[in-house]
Target: Prephenate dehydratase
Amino acid sequence: MTSTVAFLGPAGTFTEAALVAFEKAGAVSDVQQLPVNSPSEAFQAVREGRADFACVAIENSVDGAVTTTFDAFTEGDALQVYQEVDLEVAFAIMVKKGLSLDDVHTIATHPVAYQQVRGWLTENIPDAKFQPASSNGAAAEAVSRGEVDAAAAPERAAEIFGLDVLANSVADVKGATTRFVLVGKPGRPTERTGNDRTSVVFTVPHEPGSLASILQEFSYRNVDMLRIESRPTRKKFGTYNFFIDLAGHIEDEPLSEALRALWLRTENLRFIGSWPAADQSGPKLDTTEFDKATAWVEKVREGR
Amino acid sequence: MTSTVAFLGPAGTFTEAALVAFEKAGAVSDVQQLPVNSPSEAFQAVREGRADFACVAIENSVDGAVTTTFDAFTEGDALQVYQEVDLEVAFAIMVKKGLSLDDVHTIATHPVAYQQVRGWLTENIPDAKFQPASSNGAAAEAVSRGEVDAAAAPERAAEIFGLDVLANSVADVKGATTRFVLVGKPGRPTERTGNDRTSVVFTVPHEPGSLASILQEFSYRNVDMLRIESRPTRKKFGTYNFFIDLAGHIEDEPLSEALRALWLRTENLRFIGSWPAADQSGPKLDTTEFDKATAWVEKVREGR
Model:
């Protein structure tokens, strides 16, 4: 079955590489690519039915949360994560055919990527001026159009845009990893594997200790909280949406009990998904009918 | 006494406006401005003694934490926050003298600012191409040099760079606010006012429930946790520095007791400061000797 997948384009971005990885793993098949300009646009395409899935970066081991992705989860109808993939992120420095590092006076890349190659640039082309781009693929494209001398982008972008690679595996922090997720409309979660991740988002009543006492619902039941991310609600300065990742699947008894307690104690609770953790090969995405999870899951998903 | 203050330059940025506000409030006097390119460089200037203070943005009501500032707190010796100021953030759209909106094909601003004016731009100049800049002041400067047609920047930047303002008070979310802090080397905290904010950063042992049980140290004692921010340690994917803001001063008994408990239960605890909350006029910064806080405060400040 053909799946249309929205992703941060153009071709040659790391997000496209993640999409290829999802296809290889069988999470989606016969992919029609729909390049867009931001995670928000990718989610909008899914919400409006123009795409079946969105493939977006969610976290980087150096730069942290991709905040535009987190915000996109709460700016419209509920969406759900079905799979994740971790990619090691290293950059190629690319130029128009025939040029050398001495010819590089300007270099373009995504601002997040810039944070990851700045040390290398300072050491090797200290006088080159940084020009921010909306994506690494767009940076490579700008080189091909002669708008900038060089780009830091995935090596594949050099092939796509016919550029020369002057340096490879450039990364100030070796082993820097970015996590990507495959996001669709709410449906049956990917099957429990025993090594899963569950994510929810909620707001809390503004009272001393409310967040701490809510988090106890996990520690009581020995459910490991893997991360917590706060994002402004944009309604009142100092109020936040809390995104929490938990170890386990919504069909694991202690976790589902803790979420039931959260449903009673938090505001605007949304289920973001249960899916296999990236450090094992995930099973093929199953799109058959939701048959095991209980009715309250639906309530959690819709929030209150 | 002259104070050298490092800030995100050039002149005409919101950070410069915050610095002027700090000077007006008496937090610093006889300021020598040291414009730099990032919060990290501003902190480095303080650590190396080239500046007495750094003035940096830390949080925005629309875009959330200024992550580069949070990361800069842990990338070198401990630094301390002494004051904060909240500025309402609205933008002026500025061009070279004599031009009109019809002449605008490219518009530059800082990527965070772009998120806050995108709606207005789409409505008023839908075909103008966004060009990211390292600061709003730099965007205005680029207009004056003819490198770009328009900039979204604080109105003051138009005066500084001799530009025409075509629209004012532009902000997709009305009342958007940015919080700025004044940061120096560790010293005696600003005096207790009864409406203070205290901030710490730490890592936690990797065990289920460790963060939740640590946060109980606050709820036990009825200390309100105002926010929590997680940033990657950059050592291992999935390990975080947790930044926590608390209501109260380190000289408030319940808060200081909770921090003492944290010192025993967390790793790499650092005291980031106690200072007056922005919704009251803060007292003048006192730089006399530390006389009241107890010796363990020093230990907390240095981490373990």
